[in-house]
Sequence to fold (1283 residues):
Amino acid sequence: MRLASDIGGTFTDLVYLDEVTGRLGSAKTDTTPPTFERGVIDTIRKAAISERAVTFFVHGTTVIINALTERKGVRTGLITTRGFRDVLEIGRANRPDLYNLTYTKPTSFVPRALRLEVTERMTYKGEILVPLVDDEVVAAAAHLVGEQVDAIAVCFLHAYANPAHELRAVQIIRHRWPQIAVTASHEITREWREYERTSTTVLNSYVKPIAARYLDQLDHELTRNGVGGGRYVMQSSGGTATFAAAREAPIAMVESGPVAGVLGAVAIGRVVKETNLISLDIGGTTAKTSLIEQGEVKITTEYKIEWTRASAGYPIKIPVVDIVEIGAGGGSIAWIDEAGSLHVGPQSAGAMPGPACYSRGGSEPTVTDANVVAGRINPAYFLGGEIALDERRAREALQPIARHFGITVEEAALGVIRLANANMVNALKLVSVHRGYDPRDFTLVAFGGGGAMHAPALAEELRINRVLIPTNPAVFSAWGMLMTDLRYDLIWTSIRRTQKAVDDGLDRMWSTLEHQAREYFTQQSVASSRLVFQRFADMRYAGQEHTVKVPVPDGALTAAAIRQVEERFHALHEQRYTFRLPSAIEFVNFHLTTFGTVDKPRVPRLRPTPNGGGARRSKTTGGALKGRREVDFDARGRLLSAVYERSRLPSGAAVKGPAIIEEPAATTVLFPGHRATVDAYGNLLIEVRQ
Amino acid sequence: MNARTPVRRRGRDGGRPGRGRVGVRDPFTLEIIKNALVAIGDEMFVALQRTSMSTIIYEVLDYATGLTDARGQLITQGNGVTLFLGTLSHAVRYTREKFPADLHPGDIIVTNDPYTGGGTHLSDVSLVMPIFYGDEIVAFAANKAHWTEVGGKDPGSWTTDATEVYQEGLQFPCVKLFDRGRPIESVVDLIRANVRLPEMTLGDMWAGVAALRVGDRRFRDLCDKYSVAVVKRAIDKLLVDGDTLTRLELRRLPPGQYAAEDFIDDDGIGHGPFPVRVRITVTSDEFHVDFTGTHAQVPGPVNCTMTALVSGVRATYLAITNPSNPVNDGAFRSLRITCPSRTIFSAERPAPVSTYWETMLYVADLIWKAMAGVVPDRLTAGHFLSVCGTIVAGAHPDTGELFLLVEPQAGGWGAGRHKDGENGLVCVGDGETYVIPVEVTETRYGVIVDQYGYHTDPGGAGTFRGGKGLVRDYRITAEEAYLTTTFGRHKFLPWGMAGGQPGSRNYVKVLHTDGREEIFGKTARYRLLKGEVARLITGTGGGYGPPSARPPEKVVEDVRNGYITAEQAEQEYGVRVDPKTFALGGTREPARA
Fold:
């Protein structure tokens, strides 16, 4: 039995897969802060799973991101190079909100009085210019301990080039004050730029005791309840880590939740033999999308939290799956600005009060209200009928928009849907078109509560031919976690020209990195036969600053291999930026990704029709037809459409639009010209005729 | 992907086929196109940054990209720096005048003429590309970026002692750079021969071209999808909305006359100070800014021209009306600007202009100062008001190659009605501008940074305290290096507000190996030897409200955090703080200054 637990702000979800029977199930309970582990145990009980049968437990968590955004981490001190304690507060001194002359910078996580300096200095070449004065480290740490800090971050200039001083400093502190959570910058990132590295180190320290307590308690509770098997945490990089590894670098869990869906898309892609995918997760508040090329997720190290057009945010230099998230979901509110133009989001009605049609006190029009008025959502079958939606309230909420533009409520609803879709299209373009990818080469994998409802229209807009709606789209993210390998990334900054890179110690560097990765996995008791290495280099034209990530072949970096890498770089640069240059090329970072592969369950094939009297292998849809209703298909008009129950559609069944396919937690809207078939695994594959 | 992808054309009126409710009468389609136009501006902006060869572009983001309509009205602009606002339209209009019938698809025009065509100083180079749909020019893509090297008498091109524009670099008087998609090699050769770092300069050129091509491609995609007619309609709506939103705010301002005056330190070659003045008349439908009474243009390179003047005014107008409004020409229809010709704000050829921005900052600051008391929720007390532009040039100790460090400095901002000033933030002329990391600086340039942090120069005391200025030390590791700086507000301090104290000044202090020290604001090619230190110190912002009204607990916290010294706490705030225990030792009347 394999378990995936997704601890969200409101609910804790459990998805479980019985490897013997292939049965996939799920359970949901309330999240139970601050004792989050209780919620996890509750779901296991609720699902009535035999604890001892569990072979694999993975979980995604919002505990870290919440501790950061709610400022519920621990009191943290910083020890840094003499002359540089203000680096953390100055940041990069940018003013993203250009015309706002009362702009307020993000407040530092460590106040100035807790930022202390010690004598030491490295050069950019990693040579010791001024030796570290041990006594000053002792004095600084003693002062911080006296100031009641629970965590200390250590970040010295050029530690990415030579971490010797940081190693010494943390050794001193850990030896004397073992109770203090200590993080040195080089343990988290080996990239240059002191502000970004300091920020990352500080944020890691700030949440480290929280993560340790949380993981230990969860571990303890799982053991106490007899849950067996290996235990893993989802990482922002799209891999998993053991509890022990996650304890040391908890900042890597910052996007633990959202990446799981992207990994799910990769996994479902493997099943249906599609390697170019765009994942789209539409929830109540946001839509998240990410592009997968040749079966691989895209990674960025330019991640920031609380970064908006109006705020500089806080950089975290760790590998994070490149996800674009926008404020457009079912709960997004439609509003009219002072100039009289309509907007949708980013404000959301959330779950409370929720859309107007929930009848929980919400009166502002949302995307869900618009979908109800357009006939796309069945008010009697929302969450399988758990919430009865009130179409009258939805209409009332949309009335002011209709009045403002002098149109009908139905037209206003379509306008809201169209604007929400346009926002989502812009997000989808950000990950595709804007990065030089043609969406037509991709399959759109849509999930979350709203994915199936919007995806077919979005695909049409982007001229995507194929949409995949997985089974159980509402818990697809948790399912994705079950399909994920362990992952460890090592990134090392060392700038050099490609022409001079042959016989320049690079082969030794790769083997050193691989050795480090092996050591890491040995500590996690992962057999080396399970390791898979992937090499990348961040490259640029000499003189540029920003880089392009280029895959590097295994084996010796011969002149021929370097030429091959250069050519890949030229091609990727041109794809993304429209031109290539005859200039010299530089390596900037060397990036080794190591996967510790775990056994993954086989995805079960759809069993013959459940309610149709045994093994009827009928491909007809007759048994699934629930009725017909009028649905508004925007430019194509309001059409009488067949409505199907998804769970009763057998594999091989085909449904032509206009049609609606309902399941308890999602609704698929097929436009005229769209054709959905149910594949052997129960996925809906929609062909969008252009 | 292909530059042009074949797509199905929609109905001729541009609407989708349907029941007539989604044609051009549909307000939502226009809204969607508006958003798409803004997204195009963003994408152009990123393309330029990611491919640039100059730190001044990819870190400092000293550039702007955007689209105008066929008449040259700005539709959308992605800005890295505040004060490029509106310059793109000037460049496009100049292009239209000069090439009324001689533009083809794929053509690119280059201009940096400070006196006519949207130019500011020669280092800021604009590229303009007509966007064709069929045979018709439907829009222009444009950008303006600070190219690190455009030749001239000094490395880095801008300098503080030029006396004519001819010393300040290569002039591009609005000429074709690309013909039907291909670079005109003779022009490119001319650039290559006239600049010190041709690879970098041409790299910046290509980055600009990449951004234009992105804009061109996306704009035509939009026309493919919605038809030209509908896109044009959306543009008109965008501009009208911009005007409407601004006028709503304008009507909330109390009508009346507001004025301010100030002084610019000097012109870098011994003249000055120069008085500058503004008188603003606010009515319900116009914001009229009049600079009559401002000093005439001057011999040194601090002159600013009309294009820059307009940008400075626009930036503050946006800040006063609604800083989150979208940026387009519509937002400025209610703005009127008067300035006599040949002033320091409206200089004419061949006045040197290479550090024009320091003077343009005064344009923005004068309006800010005049209006601060009127809109105190949107305007703070005065800030350090200078880019504090710095050049360090020399031969890299490792490679022997020329290095050229060109960067702005961050400083202290003014306190406001409800807040202390911001510590260490780039000036109003810069924006999404990133100071260069110490680790990058030391790797690329022949210097070691000995310290980078706040200082405690006196200034900025108030009920709300001015934000801290910074100190940054460059110790030279090359055999020798040359320092050029233009630190404004060296003699006239950031202004306080509502009884708050003025801030502190910007200055450079050179520490010679023989123990000599020298302090100045502006210098050109100041020779530094190995081991000598250039200490760059930026001002603390002005305070808001009387210092005596600052709660003693806050003063104690300031001492604990080292933002002010215990002596300053006592002298400026009348609060005694034990410098060791940080215990509050009572309060008394502040000493008279």
Q: What stands out?
A: Residues 72-204 of chain A form a domain with the Rossmann fold fold (CATH 3.40.50). The longest strand of chain A covers residues 486-497. Chain A is about 30% helix and 25% strand.
